Amino acid sequence: MKRFNYPFAVATIALTVFSSCEESSDNIGSNPDFPTVSAGAYILNQGSYFDNIEGSLNVLDYGSDNLSEHVFKTVNQRSIGATPQCGVAYGSKIYIGAWQSKTIEILDKHTYKSIKQIKLEDSDKGKSPRGMVAKRGYVYVTMDEGFLARIDTAYMVIDGAVKVGVNPEVPAIMGDVIYVPNCSHSAGYGTTGTAVSINPFMELKEFNVPINPQKFLSNGTELFVISAPVYDGYNVTHKAVLAKINAHTEYEVIGDATMGDIKGNTLYLINAPWGEPVSYWKYDLVTKTKTEMKFPEVEAPSGIGVDPFRDVILISSFPMENGFASYTLPGYVCEYTLDGKFIKKYDIGAGPACIFFNME
Question: What pTM value is reported for the model?
C-alpha cells in the first residue's frame, strides 16, 4: 500500500508566552494566532514517485470559485519536489514539506514565489517531512527519522528539534503543547504519542494511544487521535479507530475512522480501510452523538479538510480505474456544506493527500 498522510488544517487558538519578528511583519491582523477569516484552500498532490509523476500545489480561491493547478511550478518554473507531503499557510508565507525530496519550500503567500528552499539531506534534525503545525512565529515539522523540528519563520531556518518516537505523523497543538503521533511503521507500529512543550521546546512525556497513530486533532480544549489499520498481508489485525485522549494517560475509542478533521465541537470522519466499503460520520463533542453522513460524489477518499472559519468541507479523492483507486490518474476534490450538501467538484492532479487553509 502507498503511505499517505491524512490532511490537516489545525487552527492554533490558544495563547503562548512568546512572540517573534514574523508577527509584526505579517499583514494578517494584530495576532496571527487568531485568524478570523479563510480566503481559500490549498490541496497538495503527491504525484507518483515511482511513475515519474510530479507532485503539485493547487489553490482554491473562494472569491472567484476557481481552482488553479500546478501553481508552484507555474510561478517558479521548477518542480515542487517528490512527494509533497504536508503544508501550512502561516503569516505571510506558505510552508510545504516534500518527503522524498527531503526539502521544505517557503513561499510568499500572495505571489507563490519561492523565498527559500531548506534542504534537509544533511540535517541532524530530521530529513523527511511528514506533518506541520504553526504557532507564535514558528512552524513545527514532524520528520520521519524521529524528530519534531522547529522553523523560525523570521529567519527561515530550523533552529531546534526534539527527539520523539519513530516515524512521527501529523501533529496537533492544544494550549502550549504539541502532540505528536509516533506511527513507528518501520519498527512494528507504535502505540504512543509524545507531548512536547512549546516554551521551553522540550519533551514533556510519552503516553499510550491506539496502535499505528496517524493524526492528532484538537479544538483547543479536547484531544483526539486517529490510528490507521494494521494489516497482515490482506488481513486486518487492528482496525482504524478514532480515540479521545483523557489526561494523557488513557484513551477512549469513539468509533472507526481512517481520516478526519475538526471544527469547533464537531469531528468529521471518514472510514475507508483498504478493500472495504467507505463510511462517513460526524461526532458531536458536546452531546457525544454520532451522525451518519453521505458524500456520493466521492469515489475513493484520500483526505478531508474542514475550513475553521467557513462552513465548508473539502474531500479529496482518487479516481477509480477498473474497480480500484488509481494513484496515477488525476484526482479531484469535492466541496460541501457542513451538512453534506454538494457544492462543486474540482479536478486536480494525481495523488491528492493534504488539504490546508489560507488564513487572511
Answer: 0.90
